[in-house]
Amino acid sequence: MKTLLMYDKLVPVNREQHRQLRVKASDKKLNFARETNSVLLAATELPLAALDFPCVFVATGDQHTLVSVVGLRDKENLLVDDHGAWDTHCYVPAFIRRYPFVLAEQPGSTQLTVCVDEAFDGLNATDGEALFDADGQDTAYLQQLQKFLLDFHNDMQRTTAFAKRLVELDLLVDRNIDFKLAEQHITLNGFKVVDEDKLHKLPPDTVQELFNNGALGWIHAHLLSLNNVNKLGARLIRKLTN
Q: What residue segments make up the domains of the chain, in order of their start?
């Protein structure tokens, strides 16, 4: 079973075990993302992601978070082509870009550790970016990677807090994504969106709060993104007719 949607064999990056490890681009490109129709998204990504696909809220346990919808059918990502390439004209979420690495908590500890998917075919001992130098110290590549992963982790925490505030304000409502394909009616459910009527009825001080912390811009980007359902539908039609 895959963990975190796309990872097959996660192990902590170890200074001794992975001393000679190098990372190069996979020959399979982004095939690892081919079978997901939604991708976790940080709220900070909304201004760009909202231009290309629907960005909606989903419940995860007792919390909510954001996802970008990248497919209208189960196990189908319409942004990844037959060669494993992501559409060059569309935004690539950080959740995808971080692969084969991820920050994870170790059992019995709250400390975050960089982990790598050992099933990734770009791992080798000769070509690509090294994680450690000849003295066993972190390379600039690994340091940059650690910063990227930590920034994404912190952005996802901000996203959880953002969604929590929307729940507190009773702004999130259940919605389905509906699309008609010839005689077939496609429905994706389990999503939530901001109710525009409730948003417009918020008291001025609450609107000011949302404006001051950047949440209001994220809300409007989310609402605009919902128009991209038709873009996904057009992609599906092209795929089926080519």
A: 10-241
